[in-house]
């Protein structure tokens, strides 16, 4: 058994929530709903170490694939990347290998028998950072467990020491608890003196990004999905600013290539061709840890359909062994109205027993400054959507 659920929820949840809020995790409850599960999932050491290997190897696989895509506009279109970003993707230089994105998270299905399958990569704007870097180590300590997540702060510091942003932004900064808390934690852990702003307060004058009347922004971390520059008012102006180097955005523009779920289809196609693009070790890792993925609906049964830029489960449809639609996410926004779909072999999440009922566990693993270094547990339905819960994951010492 890879996972074990330990602990009993405290009878004084409000006091526990107060303590977490003091640490910076202020959304343990969302309205009247309990977002945080007051228990701990413990992972077998061997499975965790294999997960680290899978993430490190696949990280370089995705890096190679993104460089294969750069400059090929037919592939930009195949990946559903908005045209407004194409000139910038062509003209700007990619970061060094392993650092196209410095703030990312893999999401895996890891079953109780130890099978590890990658579901997707959020290489642009992953949330869950506060839960993983702040709440998880604290919760592991409550159960006398050591958390590998304690190193996350140091990797963020190293990442932003290199990128050196002066501003950090998200939409509804100061109003949206999760995004604001994520930005505040990243800024605090960076060790930098930075100004936090609301994306909606930014304005662009002949390519120059400004906030207020006097302040010009030249380097900014933005918790803002880059694909929305093809949709939002002002998106084209921001894309132009990035392309013309008036502003450097972090994660960099090329992280949108990694973000598209269509890149998994390109990886799988390059793997299936049996060429020499990937090394023998990389091909073995793709075969073992990735799922057959395609940009066309060629799978006949046991597959998943989702938007190439879907988030929080909003576009996910699961098909059963007969090829019939079994379940789809009805709560989240279906971004496939804007972006193409990808089709992936199905790998169900393991079901664990919690105090408030059985739930499926999604295992997230952050990659910060190129280093796999932080576990994030999300528990909920067979599709991990907006209604899912946060549960901390610790690792056994042996």
Automatic annotation (TrEMBL):
<feature type="domain" description="Glutathionylspermidine synthase pre-ATP-grasp-like">
    <location>
        <begin position="19"/>
        <end position="392"/>
    </location>
</feature>
<keyword id="KW-0479">Metal-binding</keyword>
<keyword id="KW-0067">ATP-binding</keyword>
<keyword id="KW-0547">Nucleotide-binding</keyword>
<keyword id="KW-0436">Ligase</keyword>
<dbReference type="GO" id="GO:0046872">
    <property type="term" value="F:metal ion binding"/>
</dbReference>
<dbReference type="InterPro" id="IPR005494">
    <property type="entry name" value="GSPS_pre-ATP-grasp-like_dom"/>
</dbReference>
<dbReference type="Pfam" id="PF03738">
    <property type="entry name" value="GSP_synth"/>
</dbReference>
<protein>
    <submittedName>
        <fullName>Glutathionylspermidine synthase family protein</fullName>
    </submittedName>
</protein>
<keyword id="KW-0460">Magnesium</keyword>
<dbReference type="GO" id="GO:0005524">
    <property type="term" value="F:ATP binding"/>
</dbReference>
<dbReference type="GO" id="GO:0016874">
    <property type="term" value="F:ligase activity"/>
</dbReference>
């Amino acid at each position: 058994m890879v996972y074990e659920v330990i602990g009993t929820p405290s009878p004084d949840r409000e006091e526990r929530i107060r303590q977490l809020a003091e640490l910076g995790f202020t959304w343990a409850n969302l309205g009247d709903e309990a977002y945080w599960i007051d228990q701990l999932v413990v992972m077998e050491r061997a499975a965790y170490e294999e997960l680290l290997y899978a993430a490190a190897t696949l990280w370089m696989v995705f890096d190679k694939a993104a460089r294969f895509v750069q400059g090929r506009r037919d592939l930009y279109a195949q990946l559903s990347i908005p045209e407004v970003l194409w000139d910038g993707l062509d003209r700007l230089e990619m970061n060094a290998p392993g650092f196209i994105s410095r703030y990312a998270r893999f999401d895996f299905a890891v079953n109780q028998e130890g099978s590890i399958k990658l579901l997707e990569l959020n290489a642009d704007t992953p949330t869950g950072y506060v839960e993983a870097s702040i709440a998880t180590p604290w919760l592991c300590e409550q159960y006398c467990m050591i958390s590998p997540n304690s190193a996350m702060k140091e990797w963020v510091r190293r990442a932003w020491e290199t990128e050196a942003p002066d501003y950090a932004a998200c939409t509804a900064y100061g109003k949206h608890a999760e995004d604001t808390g994520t930005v505040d934690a990243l800024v605090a852990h960076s060790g930098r003196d930075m100004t936090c702003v609301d994306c909606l307060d930014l304005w662009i004058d002949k390519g120059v990004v400004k906030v207020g009347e006097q302040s010009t922004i030249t380097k900014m971390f933005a918790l803002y999905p880059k694909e929305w520059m093809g949709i939002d008012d002002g998106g084209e102006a921001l894309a132009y600013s990035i392309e013309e180097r008036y502003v450097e955005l972090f994660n960099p523009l090329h992280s949108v290539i990694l973000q598209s779920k269509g890149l998994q289809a390109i990886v799988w196609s390059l793997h299936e061709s049996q060429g020499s693009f990937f090394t023998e070790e990389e091909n073995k890792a793709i075969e073992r840890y990735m799922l057959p993925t395609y940009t066309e609906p060629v799978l006949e049964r046991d597959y998943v359909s989702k938007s190439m830029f879907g988030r929080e489960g909003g576009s996910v449809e699961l098909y059963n062994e007969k090829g019939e639609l079994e379940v789809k996410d009805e709560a989240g926004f279906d971004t496939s109205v804007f972006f193409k779909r990808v089709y992936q072999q199905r790998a169900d999440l393991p079901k664990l027993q919690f105090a408030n009922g059985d739930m499926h566990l999604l295992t997230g693993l952050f990659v910060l400054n190129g280093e796999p270094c932080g576990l994030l547990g999300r528990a909920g339905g067979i599709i991990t959507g907006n209604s899912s819960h946060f549960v901390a994951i610790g690792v056994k010492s042996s």
